[in-house]
Design a protein that fits this description.
By secondary structure, this protein is an all-alpha fold. The chain is built from five helices and no strands. The longest helix has 43 residues.
Length: 123
C-alpha cells in the first residue's frame, strides 16, 4: 500500500501534465492560425525568412525569392477576391442547412457560436 500512493501521485501528475500541455498547445495553434488569417503578409515574411535561413540563399537569390513570393501573394489575393462570392454562398448555405437541423435552443447556441467565430465562419 505504501508503494501504491507514490505511484498514483506520479500517474496523476503525468496525466495532469499531458492535459495542460494539450490545452496550451491547442491555444497556441489557434492563435497562430488566427494571426495568419488576419495578416497573410506575416506568413509570407516568415516563409521568406525561413527559406533564406534554411537554404542559405545568397543576396541575389533572396531578392528573387522576395519578388516571387510577393507576386504569388498578389495572385492569391486576387484569387481569393474572385472566389469570395462563391465561398460566401457555400458558407451561407452550409449554415442554413445546419440551422435547419437544430432545435430552437440549439439554434441560439449556434448563433452565439457563429458570432464568436465570425472571422472564420463569415458567410
Amino acid at each position: 500500500m505504501k508503494n501504491l500512493k507514490p505511484t498514483l501521485v506520479l500517474i496523476l501528475v503525468f496525466v495532469a501534465g499531458v492535459v495542460v500541455g494539450s490545452v496550451v498547445t491547442r491555444q497556441l495553434a489557434i492563435g497562430i492560425i488566427r494571426r495568419a488569417a488576419l495578416n497573410p503578409e506575416l506568413v509570407r515574411e516568415r516563409w521568406e525568412k525561413d527559406l533564406v535561413r534554411r537554404l542559405q540563399l545568397n543576396p541575389e537569390q533572396q531578392k528573387e525569392v522576395h519578388v516571387i513570393l510577393g507576386d504569388t501573394q498578389i495572385r492569391l489575393r486576387e484569387l481569393r477576391r474572385k472566389n469570395q462570392p462563391e465561398f460566401q454562398e457555400i458558407m451561407s448555405n452550409t449554415q442554413a442547412k445546419i440551422s435547419a437541423t437544430l432545435t430552437p435552443e440549439q439554434r441560439e447556441k449556434f448563433q452565439r457560436y457563429r458570432a464568436a467565430n465570425k472571422r472564420f465562419l463569415q458567410p
